[in-house]
TrEMBL record:
<dbReference type="InterPro" id="IPR000352">
    <property type="entry name" value="Pep_chain_release_fac_I"/>
</dbReference>
<protein>
    <submittedName>
        <fullName>Putative peptide chain release factor</fullName>
    </submittedName>
</protein>
<dbReference type="GO" id="GO:0003747">
    <property type="term" value="F:translation release factor activity"/>
</dbReference>
<comment type="similarity">
    <text>Belongs to the prokaryotic/mitochondrial release factor family.</text>
</comment>
<feature type="domain" description="Prokaryotic-type class I peptide chain release factors">
    <location>
        <begin position="116"/>
        <end position="132"/>
    </location>
</feature>
<dbReference type="InterPro" id="IPR045853">
    <property type="entry name" value="Pep_chain_release_fac_I_sf"/>
</dbReference>
<dbReference type="InterPro" id="IPR050057">
    <property type="entry name" value="Prokaryotic/Mito_RF"/>
</dbReference>
<dbReference type="InterPro" id="IPR017509">
    <property type="entry name" value="PrfH"/>
</dbReference>
<dbReference type="Pfam" id="PF00472">
    <property type="entry name" value="RF-1"/>
</dbReference>
Length: 206
């Protein structure tokens, strides 16, 4: 099962952005230990050196969902600021948010069913089984094509129409993911952290 996980500084200062970078390294380590494949999809760099405003990763494997769940919610790094030594604040909050991976635009079985064409067209339309109903098995998307006299041509058009519907569906899924990710950047509860890390070594306290 593939999951997406976004780690975000949640509009916090540069120390929160640095925490995201430390968290990514820790996540790499935990993913490897649990035999989960981690891929970096997007990184939004910070103006601070070696820091990230956010990262989006894919997690793929039997334990991907459990790993993503451990990183979901408010996260806390307790450390004296390495960027502003005179700063008294030590608690730096950031956030983890899982998302479902967008659907694939192509692939999967398409089931075809021949049927008699209907509608205007005279005796030829009524007496031939040239019409085709195509169903994408994985999604249930179904179309009927009868514009051509040949069943072969109608199958070709039905396949193209299915692919277009799948592409539209994927685009909608990508747009929804983009909106969800943008919203997540503004949602972090500064308190009640689900995980806490300490010091420059980013040692987990759980």
């Amino acid at each position: 099962m593939m999951m997406l996980l976004q780690l975000s500084s949640a509009q916090g200062p540069a120390e929160c952005e640095l925490a995201v970078t430390h968290a990514l390294r820790r996540l790499h380590h935990e993913a490897e230990a649990q035999n989960v494949r981690l891929g970096i999809i997007e990184q939004v760099a910070s103006q601070a050196r070696d820091a990230h405003r956010s990262v989006l990763v894919s997690l793929d494997g039997e334990h991907a969902a459990n790993l993503a769940r451990r990183w979901t919610g408010t996260l806390l790094w307790i450390c004296k600021s390495p960027l502003r030594p005179a700063h008294r604040r030590k608690n730096w909050y950031f956030a983890g948010q899982p998302f479902s991976a967008p659907e694939e635009a192509e692939g999967g079985e398409i089931r075809f069913e021949a049927m008699r064409a209907s509608g205007p067209g005279g005796q030829h339309v009524n007496k031939t089984d040239s019409a085709v109903r195509a169903t994408h098995v994985a999604t249930g998307i179904s179309v009927k094509v009868q514009s051509e006299r040949s069943q072969h041509d109608n199958k070709r058009l039905a396949r193209l129409l299915i692919q277009q519907r799948l592409a539209d569906r994927q685009e909608q899924s990508v747009q929804e993911l983009r909106l969800q990710r943008r919203d997540a950047h503004h949602r972090v509860e500064r308190g009640n952290a689900v995980r806490t890390f300490s010091g420059s070594a980013f040692t987990p306290l759980d």
